[in-house]
């Protein structure tokens, strides 16, 4: 390597870190980071191989452990997040699973907020108990419920904020205090806020996870995830799990996602701006029963959102009058906004959670989470804001 900005520069602002952080240049001096599509690495002699394996020489050994392109991605997002260490994973779910599995053993207990991405809920509710880890689901916005759920063997607390799909905001600092007191690790899934607009580690969380599939790619191409935390835990608990069970990110995906980081700021800023415009346009319309947007003063936790987030969100939730039928009519009348369960994309995407992403949790769990038959989740993209406003207006007329 001829030049490296592996750790970035502490004085850089986020936009600069997103462009230059983590870059390692080969002797060719390439402008754009190289994609190292290699499974393994060769050694000059047997002694060099021995030194690599016993840790005397800190180079690469095998891409299930680490890979130069994946390392560049990890170092870039690590610098942005202000974390000591990061591991890239094959998907967001691999990151969530890794963060929880590396925190617990049989006999331990986990507390999670109920309003979770479906697969995260499956891990807490179904998978962990199969391995002797009990879990308690609480209403994440009710701090007393977190406190009451703590047991002597509680080792991890898990939440996402804002939540999917109703965009509730959970007080990360308050939950972090409870975790610290309990001697447990607080894991925050920060997908909806993005690393630009919320910094859970600075709010007291121990671990941050992302599905890089969402805003970090932002153009619907690759799956990926990342776990960020302190050096000691990543080295001692996360790294062995990655090495021996194989959820590491592929170098191809790492390359795409690293290039995604370069433009993350401009995309997310624009998408947030447009989301705000659409939210303001829809709020108070006769056919809109409920509109939830974390950047607005009428958000149920507006004060908390202002305190812990630096901006609103690229997402909004709206409930149209007339239940499922009206929601379907609205969705089907859209021309530009596409029907998809993904989010954070350049293309605006709409989801009807009750019949798609949250179908399997059942009616009772949906009611508990405020996921009514009329609620829609809109992920705002990069299209011209006026075109999107005209699209939602047309859809509203169809309701
Ligand atoms: C998408 C998503 C995940 C899972 O990520 P994948 O990359 O699809 O595995 C986890 N949490 C949240 C909040 C998500 O939006």
Concise description?
The protein is of the alpha/beta class.
List keywords for this structure.
single chain; 399 residues; Aspartate Aminotransferase, domain 2; Aspartate Aminotransferase, domain 1; 2 domains; 14 strands; binds pyridoxal-5'-phosphate
**SSE order, one letter for each helix or strand:** EHEHHEHEHEHEHEHEEHHEHEHEEHEH
Fraction of residues in helix: 25-40%
Please, how many domains? 2
> What is the CATH architecture assignment of the largest domain?
3-Layer(aba) Sandwich
* Number of H/I helices: 14
Which class best fits the helix and strand makeup? alpha/beta
Ions and ligands: pyridoxal-5'-phosphate
Tell me the strand percentage band.
15-25%
| Major sheet summary line | 7 strands, mixed
- Kindly state the number of beta strands: 14
In the sheet with the most strands, the strands line up as 3-9-8-7-6-4-5
Low-pLDDT residue intervals, each spanning 5 or more residues = none
Look up the CATH topology of the largest domain: Aspartate Aminotransferase, domain 2
What's the CATH H-level superfamily name of the largest domain? Type I PLP-dependent aspartate aminotransferase-like (Major domain)
- Over all CA atoms, what is the radius of gyration? 22 Å
Principal-axes shape call: globular
Mean pLDDT: 96
Would you write up a description of this structure?
- This protein starts with a strand and ends with a helix.
- It has 399 residues and is an alpha/beta fold.
- It has a seven-stranded mixed beta sheet with strand order 3-9-8-7-6-4-5, with helices on both faces. A five-stranded mixed beta sheet has the order 10-11-14-13-12. Strands 1-2 form a two-stranded antiparallel sheet.
- It folds into two domains: 258 residues, Aspartate Aminotransferase, domain 2; 135 residues, Aspartate Aminotransferase, domain 1.
- Helix 1 runs antiparallel to helix 10 and helix 12 crosses helix 14.
- Strand 7, helix 8 and strand 8 form a beta-alpha-beta unit.
- The structure holds pyridoxal-5'-phosphate.
